[in-house]
Known about the structure:
Low-confidence stretches: 168-174
Mean pLDDT: 91
Helix content: 25-40%
Strand content: 25-35%
Radius of gyration: 22 Å
Structural class: alpha+beta
Bound molecules: zinc ion
Amino acid sequence: MQIAPVTHADIDALSTLLIETVAANGSVGFMHPLAEQEAQAFWAQALASAARGERIILGARQDDRLVGTGTLLLAMAPSQPHRAELTKVMTSPSMRGSGAGAALIAALEQAARDHRKSLLTLDAAVIDGATTFYRRLGYRSVGDIPDYAYKPLGGLGATRVFWKSLDAPGGQGSGNTRADDERWMRHALALAERAVSEDNEIPVGAVVVSPDGVVVGEGWNRNIAEHDPSAHAEIVAMRRAGQGLGNHRLVGCTLYVTLEPCAMCAMAMVHARIARVVYGATDPKTGAAGSVFDLLADPRHNHRIEVTDGVLAEEAGMRLTNYFRAKRGKSPS
Length: 333
Ligand SMILES: [Zn+2]
């Protein structure tokens, strides 16, 4: 994959990409169907703006074919010389999951740094994984604006506003490697297994690890066994960690949990001053780390928590699915 600024020679390919994105209900400012002429006119104007130094338009190429693009708007108000905005980020449908989108964002961030920009902002429609994509790249959500824009295929949709400081260490600031995260997540998955085998409860496991890499608390769901609506895996693990450390604050600790935390657990993590949360499967019904609520990153808290999601997500999700299938008397998938 090669990433470089686009030129007038790319207008046809850029227009095709834009038309494809709009046809797939991607929110990039246009309605479906988008006429070729209108798409071409948009890119001609955008390229003229790039020539004036107001924006940078990058393209991602695979085997000389343009498979993605993203724009960095540089021209801001005089009071915002340090800010730039990410916009018109799109990848061809055949390239989903290839890392083309993340590579484009990384190149746009580098371009922003080169232009001495320290703050990036963007908005993304609250659909089809777009918001998860930015969260995974270290962008923080400010919240949703309902009925912000019409989706290309019709109907008003919400938009989520994101920002990222380029001065901060960024998305993976803690220095933990993916291998460390996966090792601890395996530990949490083993605890989830015990929820089923020992208590026949929903398989969610959590482990609290101190800044120097020592387990200070473990837990799995114990709601039924303890007649306790608050006995989620995370609460059980944090309770044990607090007792073990003799402190209600778990400063600098990382909490690994197999499922995206709910609102109750997310707030307990904020109260405990947990430094970082790593979770496996997302919970589209009650998740409070971005799926339904985004409590861990809410700027209104005086403590914010770094979040890494999707670690061994498939394995964690499969365990839950199999558990519920077994409950309904079906065989595991
Ligand atoms: Zn919970």
